[in-house]
Design brief:
It is built from 5 helices and no strands. With 149 residues, it is mostly helical. Helix 2 packs antiparallel against helix 5.
Length: 149
């Protein structure tokens, strides 16, 4: 599995994000391209500790059975529901949301390899740096494929 902490992988993701347009069509799901970028930004803010969240009780019970699926080589299923994401940005914020996501991906890749280990995922709990790097890449890749990137 690729890891966002690898410089070449980070560059690949940044290029793919740069290829998105306001008119990018989704292959599955309900999010617009702007919503997807806001969703990814919020998820990285959880990983880097900017948006700490309490662990879900059910996650403490079920996480040991599913944790490796979050960062392994198998793709996420299409249309998978991973929790409530109520934020719906105005489509006119496309460039703002893309700039914000490009910035946070770069910052995470360059500075969070050690600090992210102290920030638990709200369902799965604590990850090693390598696991976080793989999970963040896998999540970005999943949603970029959702929009043909």
């Amino acid at each position: 599995m690729k890891n966002i902490f690898d410089k070449a992988v980070k560059e690949e993701i940044l290029i793919r994000l740069g290829n998105l347009t306001i008119h990018s069509k989704r292959n599955w799901g309900k999010m617009s391209v702007t919503q997807m970028m806001a969703h990814l930004t919020r998820s990285i803010k959880i990983a880097n500790g900017d948006t700490p969240m309490k662990r879900a009780f059910i996650g403490r019970i079920l996480a040991p059975f599913f944790k490796s699926r979050y960062y392994n080589n198998r793709p996420y299923p299409k249309n998978i529901k991973m929790g409530i994401d109520p934020y719906i940005p105005d489509p006119s914020l496309f460039e703002t949301k893309r700039s914000e996501l490009l910035k946070i991906v770069s910052e995470f890749s360059e500075t969070c390899a050690s600090k992210c280990t102290s920030n638990p995922h709200p369902f799965f709990g604590y990850f090693t740096s390598e696991q976080w790097g793989k999970a963040v890449y896998k999540h970005l890749d999943h949603h970029l494929k959702q929009f043909n990137e």
